[in-house]
Amino acid sequence: MITILCSGSRGDFQPYIALAQELKKLGKDVRITGMKDFEDFIRSYDIDFYPIQADFKSLNVDEKMLKKAQTADNPLKMLLTFNKMKKYGTSIANEFYAACEGSELIIYHPGVTLGYFASEKLGIPSILASPFPIHKTKEQTSVIQYGRIKPTPFKNIISYYMLQGMLWLASKGSVKNLWKKEFGGLPKKFGRPYERHTDKKHPAVISCSNFVFKRPNDWNENIHQYGYWFVEEKIDYIPSKELEDFLSSGEKIIYIGFGSVFHADQKEILSKLIVEALSKSDKHGIICGMGEFNNLPDNVFAIDSIPHSWLFERVAAVCHHGGAGTTAAGFKAGVPSIIIPFANDQHAWAHRAYDLGVGAKPIPIKKLTSDNLAAAINYALEDKVVENARGLGKSIATESGARDCAKIIVDTLTK
User: What is the mean pLDDT of residues 374-384?
Assistant: First the structure.
């Protein structure tokens, strides 16, 4: 059994579902471990799930703190938030360790470093599987600093120490406390494990397209990046007649959705702003994931949820918060991006879309107005941006990230 340790929101789990799907195709038994709230979602893809019984409610997670984590718009705020979150990891460490027992190999998200130390304790291989480039390099800036600083080789290296430091800060306490309680002391070589994946028994795999961020030449040969990890949807999506009619109207339609970073208290302000921006740009729009609305104008359609893989290729552009998975889906669809970053690595993906010429200039959520959103929509639909986005989509289609990384993982067991 291969066990994948994961944390985060629904979007954070999707790349690991894709990886699990490919491992199953290669004949491996695989399961994903995470908060029990995600069990139905994971099992809907016929992937086994080991539920962590605790949830945000039982852990008494401060909702205000969660909101701050989703809106931390600079590295200092991120650091402070990660520091506050570390106590919650301690509460569930024993469950994550239990999930590792009986496994032949552990794959872990960089926010669940317990996987590395558990594998060492159990004498089995571990693989770091990251949804973004995480290893230090002189060639490009990390996702918490990209677009914020003028890159130099030295600054680039420092930016990865910062990224790794925040992830380690959030997870080291859970490892430390569990080991002291259960094993009487700290694990051997207790410290950040991210740069230790340097041999064929302990490789690292990265979900990122080489056409978005090229694999750095100064990474060691056991860090593998072959493209994004995209989920294969089990069932073809069937739209309602109303949605189908809206999409076939002949108008240029903009998708607008902010995923898990959207909060209900933002609905009134954001929806009004979106409707005004669509009117000013003379475009139609689909608002996703913001609940039901009354009296929307004819050029706006609201929907609760919909597979990005189905919808994105049917719209003219996608406007979203810049989550890594949503950004990847937009790139794959070959349509322009309008990214409104809220926090963390979302700023990096927003800047990268603009730098690649496949999206409008980033508009941080705190600076969003109907005027600048309308201007961004019009910019994104310019011929040069549309052509660049289409070209990027075709390039990404040549990659098989999840499949190729799954082969690396299976090969690890034969070394």
Answer: 97
Domain 241-396 fold is Rossmann fold (3.40.50)
- Contact (Cβ atoms closer than 8 angstroms) between residue 130 and residue 143: no
Q: Say if residues 331 and 358 touch (Cβ distance below 8 Å).
A: yes
How many residues belong to the chain?
415
Burial of 344 (0-12, 13-18, 19+ CB in 10 A): buried
> Per the structure block, which two tokens stand in for 186?
């700290």
* pLDDT of 210 strictly over 60: yes
Q: What share of the chain is helix, strand, coil (3-state, %, to 5)?
A: 45, 15, 40
Per-residue CA distances from 278 to 191, 193, 283, 362, 377 (Å): 50, 47, 5, 18, 8
Looking at residue 294, what is its pLDDT? 82
- Segments in 146-298 forming alpha helices (H): 153-183, 241-247, 267-281
The DSSP bridge partners found for residue 204 are 128, 223
Main-chain phi, psi angles of 103, to 5 degrees: -90, 155
Nearest to 341 by CA among 354, 331, 357, 358: 354
Report the C-alpha dihedral over residues 402, 404, 405, 410, rounded to 10 degrees: 120
Q: Are 358 and 388 in contact (CB under 8 A)?
A: yes
pLDDT digits 0-9 by tens, 121-154: 999 999 999 999 999 999 999 999 999 999 999 9
Tracing tokens 């549309």 back to the chain, one arrives at: 386
- Predicted pLDDT of residue 72: 52
For 96, the enclosing helix (H) or strand (E) is helix 75-100
- Give the domain ranges of the chain: 2-228+399-412, 241-396
Alpha carbon distance 398, 39 (integer Å): 32
3-state DSSP assignment of residue 394 = helix
Instruction: State the burial class of residue 114 (Cβ atoms within 10 Å of its Cβ: 0-12, 13-18, 19+).
Output: buried
pLDDT in tens, 188-209: 889 999 999 998 889 999 999 9
CB-based contact 412:127 (threshold 8 Å): yes
**Superfamily the domain 2-228+399-412 falls into:** Glycogen Phosphorylase B; (3.40.50.2000)
C-alpha closest to that of 284 among 271, 297, 293: 297
